Amino acid sequence: MSIKALIVDDEENSRKALLNMLQYYCKDIEVIGQAENITNANELINEHNPDVVFLDIQMPGGNGFELLKKFKPIPFKVIFVTAFDHFALRAIKLSAVDYLLKPVSPKELIRSVSKLEKQMDVEDLFDKQIETLEDNLQTDRQVKKIILNTSTTMHVIKINEVIRCEADENYTRVIKEDGKAVLVAKTLKEFDEMLSPFGFCRIHQSHLINLSHVITFEKSGGIVILTTKERVPVSSRRKEFFLSALQHHV
Amino acid sequence: MSTSWQLYFKMRTGDAYGNRSDQEARLLINVVPAWWQRWWFYLLLILVIGGFVGLIWFLRMRDVKMKWQNTDLNQQLLRLQMNPHFIFNSLTSIQNYIYSNQTHLAGQYLSDFARLIRLILENSRHESISLEKEIETISLYMELQKLRFTEKIDFSIKVDPAIDTEITYVPPMMAQPFLENALEHGIKNSFRDGVIEVSYTLVDKKIRFEVRDNGIGIVTSKSLKTDDQADQHESLSIAICRERIQLLERKTKTRIPFILDEIIEDGVVKGTRVAFEVPLKGSFVSKNIKA
Question: Is A83's CB within 8 Å of B84's CB?
Answer without folding.
Answer: yes
